Amino acid sequence: MSTTIPGVLRSAVLSGLLLAPPLVAQDRDALPATPNCSSCAEWNVPHAPVKLFGNSYYVGTNGLSALLVTSPDGHVLIDGALPESAPLIGRNIEALGFRLRDVKLILNSHAHNDHAGGIAWLAARSGATVAAMPASARWMERGNSTADDPQFGLNAPFPAVARVRVIADGEVVRVGRLALTAHRTGGHTPGGTTWTWRSCEGAVCKDIVYADSQSPIAADDFRYSSNTRYPGAVADFRRAHTLFETLPCDILVMPHPAAAQLWERVAKGSVDDPQACRRLAVTSRMALDNRLATEAASPPVPPAAEAWWRHVQVLAHDSLKGRDTGSPGHESAARYVAQQFAAAGLTPGGTDGWFQRVDFVEVRLEAARVALAMREGSGAWTPLTVGRDLRLAPRPSTADVEAPLVFAGYGLSLPQAGVDELAGLDLKGKIVVHVNGVPKGLSAPLQAHGTRSRWAAMQRAGAVGIIAIGGGGAWSEAGGTGGAAVALADTMLDDTRGQRLNGTLNPALAARLFAGTRMQWDSIAARVARGEKLPTGALDVSLRATLPTVRRALTSPNVVGVLPGTDPVLRNEVVVYTAHTDHTGTFKGPALTGDSVFNGAMDNASGAATLIETAKLVAKRGGNKRTLAFVGVTAEEKGLLGSRYFAAHPSLRNGTIVANLNTDMFLPLIPLKGVFAYGYEESELADDLDAVTKARGLAVFPDPEPEQNRFVRSDQYSFIRQGIPALAFKVGYLVGTPEEKTWQNWVRDHYHKLTDDVTQPVDFATAAAFNELYADLAIRVANRAKRPAWRTNSFFASPVP
Q1: Which of 40, 268, 453, 691 is most buried, judging by how many CB atoms fall within 10 Å of its CB?
Q2: What pLDDT is attached to residue 473?
Q3: Helix (H) / strand (E) containing 105
Q4: φ, ψ for residue 293 (rounded to 5)?
Q5: For residue 13, what pLDDT is reported?
């Protein structure tokens, strides 16, 4: 006999109206949503209760199952879905005409947040006993899984259950005349449990199976084929597959209803499927075999890199939504780093415990109201098209402007190095035009600093705006109004203050700027290509811009942990270790691949993981004479803003910062033969680095791409600006080697792309060795006889603007 659902009733089920409890605007039982869970909102969509057969009902949400088995003696509830699902389950039970307080026993499939999260709430309001297999009982009483969970670290904690009755494999649990049998079907988790019972309508009875999840999903540091955390996982899966081949099974439901095609069967009018359990055995066996084959084809994570890789997995997880500055995902990342600092034995060094809150302002241009026009000589104003002619970038000082243009060559002001292209120019009230590039003869650090500090010098000379002439290649009109820009709310630290206009000019328009002057654009472009000195002077062109903006305030934390020094004198000197914890968020356009998260595994979950592991290694070794501060900085991707704030306003209660070591996207992709050290030529920190690399048989390689300005593109530059010697590091290579190709291919294919995730190849031996090297350097700098000094010939020996 088939369990059928009449057509009218079926329509009601599909429209979500069948026995649906009323949804009110303000529910006194509403619980907060699980934070940073990309699927939870979809899973938690309400669904009307559905009668499966006889005394068995589906009372869960649209994406998470909960089953109610009823009797006059009391009811049994299986699973509680998410914490925020519990009130929905309670209302579904009441909508069927039953009372929540008549639920006498609550059972569980497996104790993850999405299946056990609501149990504490439901047990408290019903007074029911909670029962589970030993591992699940232990997790529920703890409110989280432990290291024997294949998905350890990937699932959110949940409200703990005060007391859980432990049951055994094969045990029959009873409530009055109800009898349900527990079958241990581990693999997905050690405590995985399948429940079976018979439901009857008159003389017709059916075997119902609530099968636990059988998917071999795991964190990337867990290998089913070889692990010490849950060594019996594969055997548990195999036993479960055999069980499902033989179980009496008329109706199959699973913790995720979609896994058993429940809604498809409801739509067809019958939930019966006598072959479902056998199909589950086949598909689950195939999934496990595929997983094992994949593991066999990829090397395991060596023990020395396991903890580092686990940090990367957590910080680069989809649920953190790319860790954008000010987002809930970044807040979760910051909390995780703080927890790891605490586990390492550090002490809080922020202004609010572990955290130094940093205030920001986000600025957007109102694209529909932006207007641009250019006047050549004394002619009429000619409209320009945003995007086609000029791309704009909003700034906190963005405002309407009308001003003449002045050409300043490369726009560099480095008088100490004999380069000052602003000298002799009248910039007061002007918009400065420059080309992107640098002349030959400047060191890599000076090239980097000169380009980074362009606007500061222009602003001091009275300029009100800046326009760069775009480089070669195809011109893109995309992003004509620049999206959103984030700046520090502290205007004294805003490197763009006074910048009413920031734009990039289509080079096709460049020749018009120089009409009527002694300068010719073709000649200038040729000189730029040769790295030669450029002419400068006023242009016979003015620009008018209407630039309305929309602003909002946001906040985001730096995370600060401190390891106090042991020397009574040197402990007042602080060495700061930094890595940024933010990334770029999610893709705002159409997700063509189904993936929209910029996970930032290498950039810079890898560096944050190294920061954590360095703290642990150094704390374990001990003996640091100077105080060490480990700082996970925010808003690096917005322009080094978190480190800029910390370097200017250290949250440390005592001491003077004497050095900074920074790790950003160090790229453990190739064998570790040496490192790049940005800033190596500038300070005595190079001596310390030479000593520790030599001791490990490694080299310090020269920067093969000084034009990339990496010296100023990460957080060490914020400390250099304060006159503090600093170094930044990446795994290095020699030009012309296969390692160079691997490195460059990664930059081309993965940098700031959706593919920078935990599926990419990683050289774990390199990661582990780099972490050890970094810890060596930390101890050496902490214990050097004198604080590190700048080289006498360094441009940066004095604080730079």
Answers
A1: 40
A2: 63
A3: strand 103-107
A4: -65, -40
A5: 27
Burial class (CB in 10 A: 0-12, 13-18, 19+), 199: buried
pLDDT of 706 higher than 50: yes
Q: How far apart are CA 641 and CA 496, in angstroms?
A: 12
Q: What are residue 541's DSSP bridge partners?
A: 376
H-only helix segments in 63-112: 86-95
Collapse the DSSP code of 178 into the 3-class scheme (helix H, G, I; strand E, B; otherwise coil) and give the result: strand
Interval 532-572: pLDDT, tens: 999 999 999 999 999 999 999 999 999 999 999 999 999 99
pLDDT of amino acid 324:
95
Question: Does pLDDT of 655 surpass 80?
Answer: yes
Spatial CA neighbour of 605 closest among 412, 762, 372, 391: 762
State how far the Cα of 724 lies from the Cα of 788, in Å rounded to an integer. Answer: 9
Whether residue 78 contacts residue 70, with contact meaning beta carbons closer than 8 Å, is answered with: no
C-beta of residue 394 within 8 angstroms of C-beta of residue 411: no
Give CA torsion, residues 713, 714, 717, 719, to 10 deg. Answer: 170
Taking residues 133-147, report their average pLDDT.
Answer: 96
| The two structure tokens encoding residue 687 | 């001596």
Task: Render pLDDT for 587-608 as a digit per residue (tens, 0 to 9).
Answer: 876 555 567 899 999 999 999 9
H/E element, 431: strand 431-435
Q: Would you state the structure tokens that stand for residue 490, as one six-digit string?
A: 């502290």
Can you give 716-762 as a three-state secondary structure string?
Answer: HHHHHCCCCCEEEEEECCCCCCHHHHHHHHHHHHHCCCCCCCCCCCC
Q: What are residue 172's phi and psi, to 5 degrees? A: -100, 120
Weakest-pLDDT range from 67-81, 203-217, 378-392, 704-718: 704-718
CB 764 within 8 A of CB 313: no
Q: 130: buried, middle or exposed (CB in 10 Å: 19+, 13-18, 0-12)?
A: buried
Question: Length of the chain, please?
Answer: 801
**Two tokens, residue 202:** 């008159």
HEC sequence for 385-424? CECCCEEECCCCCCCCEEEEEEECCCCCEEHHHCEECCCC
| CA end-to-end distance (rounded Å), the chain | 83
- Rounded (to 5) percent helix, strand, coil in the chain: 35, 25, 45
Beta strand pairing call for 56-58 and 401-407: unpaired
Phi-psi region of 262 (alpha: psi -120 to 50; beta: other; left: phi over 0): alpha
Structure tokens at 321: 């939504």
Q: What is the SS3 string spanning 349-381?
A: CCCECCEEEEEEEEEEECHHHCEEEEEECCCCE
pLDDT 10s digits, 289-322: 999 988 887 777 888 998 999 999 899 988 899 9
The answer to whether 689 and 677 are in contact (CB under 8 A) is yes
Give backbone dihedrals phi and psi of 151, rounded to 5 degrees, phi first: -100, 20
Q: Is the pTM of this model over 0.90?
A: no
**What are residue 356's phi and psi, to 5 degrees?**
-115, 105
Contact 77, 66 (CB under 8 A): yes
Distance CA 344, CA 352 (A): 19
